[in-house]
Amino acid sequence: MKTWTWAWTWVWVVAGVAGVAAAKDRLLNIGGIFPIGGSDGWQGGRACQPSAMLAMEDVNSRPDLLPGYKLNLAWNDSLCEPGLGAAVMYDLLYNQPTKLMLLGGCSTVCTTIGEAAKMWNLVVLSYGSSSPALSDRQRFPTFFRTHPSATVHNPTRIKIMQKYNWSRVAILQQAEEVFISTVEDLELRCKEANIEIVTRQSFLTDPTDAVRNLKRQDARIIVGLFYVNAARRVLCEIFKNKLFGKSYVWFFIGEGWYEDNWFESHLQEENLNCTKEEMRAAAQYHLTTEALMWNKDNEKTISGMTAGDFRRRLNQALIDLGYENQSTPVGYQEAPLAYDAVWSVALALNKTMETLAAVNRSIEEFTYTNKEIADELYKAMNATQFLGVSGRVAFSNDGDRIAWTQVEQMIEGRYHKLGYFDVQTDNLTWFNREKWIGDKVPQDRTIVRRQLRTVSLGLFISMCTISGVGAMWALLLLIFTFIHRHRRLIQLSHPACNNITLVGIMLCLGSIFLLGLDGQFVGKQQFPMVCGLRAWCLSLGFTLAYGAMFSKIWRVHRLTTKTKIDSKVRVEPWKLYVMVGVMVVVDVVVLGVWQGVDPLQRTLEVFPLEVPKNTKEDIKIMPELEHCESRHNTIWLGLLYGYKGLLLIFGLFLAYETRSIKLKQINDSRLVGMSIYNVVVLCLITAPVTLVISAQQDASFAFVSFAIIFCCFLSMALVFIPKIIEVLQHPRGACGVPGGRGTK
């Protein structure tokens, strides 16, 4: 490419010659500030300035436009530096002739001249600035732009989110003014659309922590706003943290900011610890939004050209300026915006001339202090609408370009167009070309399915079967006791107490069935009733079974502690019954008050999320376990456990004290003592263990059931097996008469 300085000198000469040639027409002068030289910032003037000159030629060749006048552009280079841009503006304004409007490019320069231009009543039209801050009508009351604001992407992002029913998103931004303003606008739009922003992460240079925080917050749909070099660092962290694939969707900025292969280039220069293959994998299926800067339709525009015609003319102009064929200098994508900016100026001036002519005034009366004509220029620019080479040109109330946006998706290393969005009509044109892993649209959050942990059916049936057998055995023992109630062996063992024990055992074994009833068998409404039945059945069963044995051992201890034991003393059965009755009354009072004041209710214990096995769905399981609890559960359990624990300890003491004593009046006292040992030991083991394993439904149910079954079976065996053996060995034994076995 030839030295661009000589090229621009040539343009200056051509512009001057054109001005002399047009001397017969009066001139309407505008000022232009183009960022061409320099090494930092945006040097888009290299393509935008030739594009603007093409527009000047086309405008001035139209006899129906600006009749009697020619448009003249005086311009200079700002190097995309705010200070130099301000100096260029002052030079243009303080040197004749008077400028009717200003053209500007580069956001930092436009911020300076746009804020100052109101002091000269000048309208500023930018062809190359995207900063959302420039939409502030308080700071920039006369600013317009054909370059879409960076916020133009946000309505498209919202539309896509609504299309896929994404209502939970996250934002990752670089800490730059342009992105901060864009995010603020996006947050407002998300709030209006009822879309939750789960987290907003920002970074200055290193995105490592910010990307990790996204993963901690379970972000799935993520909008990324950053310059291209930061985008590569972000993409590398995305790969390292596995924030890509079937569960994630990333929104990046489109081609206007990044080149097509941005994710594979400059990796070594920027010292990124990711390979091209890794970067390509992380970039797969991400979405981009970009404002359309070239008319997508092959139709004639206001200049009589199609976008293709303009491209050919621009390419030739760049070749004439020394650019090699097919080369694209900085600003080539924005060149149509500069072309349409000149047309916007011409149309606004033409409209103003017509308005002023209606009141016998002329646009030549404009001065930097003439607010009336300046207001007419503002109104005309604000109402300007036409079809240009960059598409439909129109301005919002904030002076922003109302433009279509294009949506693309990265598929196998290449961008594919998915559709267009027209913010004016809220119309999304969609081609249905998107691709997702497994042909399933990613969800905006982890789909959590609640799963109730229930006792396994096999375990429940097994324990219920065993407890059923035990209950039948207890029933048979009741029948056995009734049939042989006249035998002295049975009479001296206090059959009524034995029967009470058997009834208690049957209740305890029945409670196993209730303990296994959970959400797989009963509903939420019936569960509190099951909770109450569990408490009553198990508590009363324990009291009857253990209470009867305790009353026996108590009477044995009372008889053995008298100074003289009379072998003919009869043990009154009613005393034993009264003791058991008192225990039952205590149970009924405590349980009744508990049930009436603070009844047991169904509560759920929630466990950490689990990844389900053998499924391709993007879901997690939230395990839940049902418990029976009341508001003051600890107090009520403390009352029951307290007094029953005292009975257990006291019963253990009595059994130990009477371990070697035999009485005729209670002939099975030693066997009852052994049963008490069994009950006490199992209760002392079961109670604390069940508290520890209460979160494991199968283990807890199995342990408690086994303890109840073992305790009941062993107690029945100890108390009744010797009696059965005795009856079988002596079927015609004594039946309550002297001389029979049992009188010895």
Automatic annotation (TrEMBL):
Q: Which residues form the signal peptide?
A: 1-22
Can you cite a GO biological process for this protein?
gamma-aminobutyric acid signaling pathway
Can you provide one Gene Ontology molecular function annotated for this UniProt record? G protein-coupled GABA receptor activity
Protein name from the UniProt record:
Gamma-aminobutyric acid type B receptor subunit 2
List residues traversing the bilayer.
457-484, 496-517, 533-554, 574-594, 635-656, 676-695, 701-721
Q: Which Pfam families match?
A: 7tm_3, ANF_receptor
What topology does it adopt in the membrane?
Multi-pass membrane protein
Cellular location(s): Cell membrane
Task: Tell me the SUPFAM superfamilies matching this sequence.
Answer: Periplasmic binding protein-like I
Query: Major place of localization?
Result: membrane
UniProt keywords (A-Z) are: Cell membrane, G-protein coupled receptor, Glycoprotein, Membrane, Receptor, Signal, Transducer, Transmembrane, Transmembrane helix
PROSITE patterns, per the entry: G_PROTEIN_RECEP_F3_4 (PS50259)
What is any one of the record's Gene Ontology cellular component terms?
A: G protein-coupled receptor heterodimeric complex
Whether Secreted counts among this entry's keywords is no
Q: Could you tell me which residue ranges the G-protein coupled receptors family 3 profile domain spans?
A: 466-731
